[in-house]
Amino acid sequence: MQFLTSPTEKKTLEISDLLDPQLLGEEVCVTGAIHTIRDMGTVAFVILRKREGLLQCVYEESAADFPIKELKEADTVKAYGTLAASEKAPGGIEIHLKRVTVLSRPAAPLPIPIAKAKMNISLETSLDLRPVSLRNIRERARFRIQEGIVRGFRDYLTEQGFTEIHTPKIGAKGAEGGANIFKLDYFHHPAVLAQSPQFYKQMMVGVFDRVFETAPVFRAEKHNTKRHLNEYTSLDFEMGYIDGFEDVMAMETGVLGRVMEILKRDYGRELSLLSITLPDVTRIPYVRFDEAKRLVSEKYNRPIRNPYDLEPEEEALIGRYFQEECGSDFVFVTHYPSKKRPFYAMDDPTDSTYTLSFDCLYKGMEITTGGQRIHDYNMLLEKIERRGMTTEGMEHYLMAFKYGLPPHGGLGIGLERFTMKLVGDDNVRRTTLFPRDMSRLEP
Q1: What is the mean pLDDT of residues 248-277?
Q2: I want to staple 106 with a disulfide (CB 3.0 to 4.6 A). Which of 74, 273, 365, 430 is the partner?
Q3: Residue 285 confidence (pLDDT)
């Protein structure tokens, strides 16, 4: 009888392993996909694509035991050779090939030039060919950056005593209300796809005090813009025993600080490849909703058209204002009008037309919505009644309040939109692995 314990140490090396100076001059073994081949006759450069980046291999006819014509782009291989230093190679190292074992071969030529720094293909073509287009190093780098954002979010909140939870995405009722809900038949019962984990987050505050989740949410909004998706990843947290919604904003500031710290420390290759300068998040200004509208109206001579919400152009101007006045790419806009916020948002006790809520704008675009929630059972029922809503389908949610919840608040960050602004893209689909919008269900 045989047993498995843990992964056995592989004899193949990764790029980070090869950077050990003691390996120079030694024979090494690596695996990877052939990204491109530059054949110059008796010498050729074979570039391997590995999980950490590109690795240059040098083929010399006199030293290798195979003809270069045996290798094709997109072959996956195991390569053996001598490690050498090279100032011109990526990472300052290269492998002088001796032999290669082909592990697999493509059945057809690549449909797009993934080895080019910029593929110069349309967004639609890139999305149609997503399993291949993502092999481009720049395309791939966006999602390494996105990984770093999630790592920072998770690491910081875990340190702050939050418990990670996983809530259902099929439910009986939407958390946000309205018509933007995907409805489905669930074993002959009406059901919906979750607009957010809001109800569950609040319920779990009564269990763990502080909770967070990273998961998909669904919005049946008939938008066809560069900033909207019908399925996106939301980074959510909810925290109990707060003194005010400012505690929630302060926690997000800490999250953003950790994100930038991790990106700077562990994602230097990707930051350099995409020419990203990380923003300063040590101090983030905040401003009331009505005051923000007034400031940009006066400075940029733009009339206030909608007193209850921010138009995209206003968000952009608010971002511009606080970059010019405070040198900050981020700004918290607080005290949104009650009529534009969900029923569970806590109204401002000094003026119930506004709420103790906020949005976080980054480079002139909303990436976060959050605030303090109503925690009193009777107050919540009164607001539901004032809005002409029914409590049908919310019995379990209301149970948490009936049996006591502490003052609490939380937020949700749109991961793809945050990534888009951080890497400098102009369309959220570029920072979504497999986008879902009004016209796209595949791949």
Answers
A1: 97
A2: 74
A3: 97
Q: Is 35 annotated as a binding residue?
A: no
265 marked among binding-site residues: no
366 is in an annotated binding site: yes
Residue 99's nearest CA partner among 77, 83, 79, 82 is: 79
- Amino acid residing at 222: K
The answer to whether 213 is a known ligand-binding residue is: no
CA atoms within 13 A on the CB side of 153: 23
Give residue-wise pLDDT tens across range 333-343. Answer: 999 999 999 99
**Would the annotation count 341 as a binding residue?**
no
Q: Per the annotation, does 110 bind a ligand?
A: no
Nearest to 93 by CA among 103, 80, 83: 83
Residue 229 counted as an annotated binding residue: yes
**What residues pair up with 440 in beta bridges, in sequence order?**
437
pLDDT of 356 reads 98
Question: Is position 228 annotated in a ligand binding site?
Answer: yes
CA dist 60 and 72 (Å) reads 16
* Model pLDDT, residue 5: 79
298 is in an annotated binding site: no
Spatial distance between the Cα atoms of 287 and 335, rounded to a whole number of angstroms: 9
Is 311 annotated for ligand binding?
Answer: no
Residue 315 is assigned to a ligand binding site: no
Q: What are phi and psi of 196, to 5 degrees?
A: -170, 165
